[in-house]
Amino acid sequence: MTFAEPDPPQEPLRVSILSQGSYLIASIHTALNDSQLTRFQRDLIDRIGRDRARGVVIDVAALDVLDSFGSRTLRDIARAGRLRGAVTVIVGIAPDLALSMVRLGLDLDLPTALDLEEGLAHLAAATGAGVVGGAAAAGTVPR
Amino acid sequence: MTTSTTSDGRSATGEADDGQLLLPELVAHLRENRTALRREWANRITDADLLTSMTPQEVFSEATSVYDNYVGVLETGSVEALQDYARDLSERIIPRGVETEEVVGIVLLLRDVLARSLFEKYHQDFGLLNRVLDAYEPAANRIANTVAVSFVQERERVIRQQQEAIRELSTPVLQVRERLLILPIIGVLDGQRAQQLTEQLLGGIRRHRAKVVVVDVTGVPEVDAAVANHLVQTVDASRLMGAGVIITGLSSEIAQTLVRIGVDLTKMNTVGDLQGGIEEAERLLGFKVTRPTDDLR
Fold first, then answer.
1. Which residues of A touch B243 (CB under 8 A)?
2. Statement: the pTM of the whole predicted model exceeds 0.80
3. How far is CA A56 from CA A15, A19, A75, A124, B47, in A?
4. C-alpha of B63 from chain center
5. Which of A32, A71, B140, B227 pairs as cysteine with A36 (C-beta 3.0–4.6 A)?
6. Cβ neighbours of A80 (radius 10 Å)
7. What is the phi-psi region of residue B93: left when phi exceeds 0, alpha when psi lies from -120 to 50, beta otherwise?
């Protein structure tokens, strides 16, 4: 029996990817630099295939900045995920982050929802599955 | 400034040509005639129709405090206590509608009353009177200045406070149904209010877990390009937070202005009036409002 190498102690957990039914919940806990973002992108898209996920919630509630690379990475994850059969929704964008993204002209062009619960409800509506918690009239707001 | 002991004998002979020595004598004189002088002052205030919003008793009691503070400043040369008192007094009288000119007026009246009493006391010795006035005038001016400035500062503080309160009230965020907020905006939307609107809106979305927000601008007389763009940004930011915004009540003038200045509102969901906006929001949220029919009642 072998144990996985534990993470080096100086490297705290920055992203967690949890599986919930046919969905993946990816939470970003701290600001990520470009290489960490790229690694996150690779890991998440790998997991979509491995777990046969039909939906992905990316929770960015802990972020107070998101630059153009960050938003492009999120968009790329969503597009690549779509090609592998999963719908992506971004949740937890804080008011200040939302405003600064708009001011910087960063358009995510992705479905967004208020929080995890809303995000799961959106996925349920988008993938045609039964509603997992959340409001019955779920789904993101039409544009 | 030191408070040297009053020496009547020395001053009366006119030896002292120094304000430092004359002021204590002045203070003693004002203390001695406190009752008569403040009564005289209160009468003058009433005669001049100042502080009409206060009762004579109130005027007299405030006059007494101001008088004592006044003498205190002459004695110590420190205006700090008077400043505090003037601020406190202003706080009490501003809500009753006392105007700046009234406050300046009463302070100048006191200055006048005291100066007259000095004339009376020293009128036999013109040289001494001059020196007494030399000592008195700068201190009196400083006092008048301090009181007036304190009053104006207090008033400005009150105005700022009220402005804040109005601003706070001017963009209420109201929940009308579960996940549905309305923001009625009344009055001119300037840059600062637009900023505040954004904060209220985004904060409200999070607090109420809103999914749809109806922003009603029926009460907004005009919108410029900067505010319109700010509105567009706010709508985009709301969408990032997972909430849709419906703008209602765009007047024909504003609609034409927006088209003329080329603000891109194609991404915005607009409905004619507030009622229509709420109906649309209910539809988006899956609410269905029905009226009980007659036979069911």
1. 114, 141
2. no
3. 14, 9, 12, 11, 81
4. 24
5. A32
6. 16
7. alpha
Mutate to test the interface with A, among B215, B230, B240, B245 (most CBs of A within 10 A): B240
pLDDT per residue of chain B (297 residues) written in tens, 0 to 9: 444 444 444 444 444 445 567 778 888 888 888 888 888 888 888 888 887 888 888 888 888 888 888 888 888 877 788 888 888 888 888 888 888 888 888 888 888 888 888 888 888 888 888 888 888 888 888 888 888 888 888 889 988 888 887 776 667 889 999 999 999 988 888 888 888 889 889 999 999 999 999 999 888 888 888 888 888 889 999 999 999 999 999 888 888 888 888 877 777 888 989 999 999 999 999 888 888 876 555
Diameter over CA atoms, chain B: 108
Q: What is the DSSP string of A79-128?
A: HHHHHTT-EEEEE---HHHHHHHHHTT----S-EESSHHHHHHHHHHHHT
d(CA B297, CA B285): 27
Whether A99 sits inside 8 A of B286 (CB atoms) is: no
Residue pair A98/B240 in contact (Cβ under 8 Å)? The answer is: yes
- In total, chain B counts a number of residues equal to 297
What DSSP line would sit under B214-250, residue for residue?
Answer: EEEEEE-----HHHHHHHHHHHHHHHHTT-EEEEE--
Q: Which residue(s) pair with A112 in the sheet?
A: A90
Residue A112 and residue B285: Cβ atoms within 8 Å?
A: no
Which chain B residues are closer than 8 Å to A137 by Cβ? 284-287
- What does the domain layout of chain A look like in residue ranges? 15-131
Establish if A110 touches chain B: CB-CB under 8 angstroms. no
Task: Give the number of A-B residue pairs with CB atoms closer than 8 Å.
Answer: 76
E strands, B124-179, in order: 174-177
Residue A142 forms contact with B (CB below 8 Å):
yes
Topology of domain A15-131 in CATH is: Transcription Regulator spoIIAA (3.30.750)
The answer to whether the CB atoms of B242 and A101 lie below 8 A apart is: no
Interface of B with A in 62-91 (CB under 8 A): none
Looking at the complex, report in whole angstroms how far the Cα of residue B211 sits from the nearest Cα belonging to chain A.
7
Using CA atoms, how far apart are residues B209 and A2, in angstroms rounded to an integer?
46
Written as six digits, the tokens of A83 are 């090609």
**Of B241, B245, B247, B285, which to mutate for an interface test with A (greatest number of A Cβ within 10 Å)?**
B241
Given the cut 0.90, state whether the ipTM is greater than it: no
Angle at B294 (CA atoms; ends B290, B295), nearest 5 degrees = 110
